[in-house]
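Write out this protein's structure.
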Amino acid sequence: MKIIDLEPGDPRLETELLPVLTELRPHLTPRLFREVYDRGHAQGLRFTAAYAEDGTCVGAAGWRIIDNTSSIRKLYVDDLVTAATARSTGVGHGLLAYLEERAREAGCLELNLDSGTQRTDAHRFYLRERLDIVAFHFTKSLERQEG
């Protein structure tokens, strides 16, 4: 497996990574994905792709380095998904190991992520990977203001 970071403007973002990412985030269109990455990159958002030996993209991770008062410095994983056709083949493990190494290189004290409460298979995977459940994540949806 080959794991690489993809920068904004790289055509593989839409042709190879996005089809895998939409398995987790089906609301993303190519246009919306470009808009989010254009704005998010300035905020530290990065995307990493995992490729099988045949060159097929089989995993995607969206992540960023964050400095804050609770963690001091952490690598936060926005998105982590393995293509349905490649699950249980080590892709998720490989991506997490890669991100953990990136976190260590950047001086992070934590690697963390949120996972929807309905994603029980993902939770089993994260626990096997020795991630701990340490917090509740609360959300309040806001209506978009026109104007």
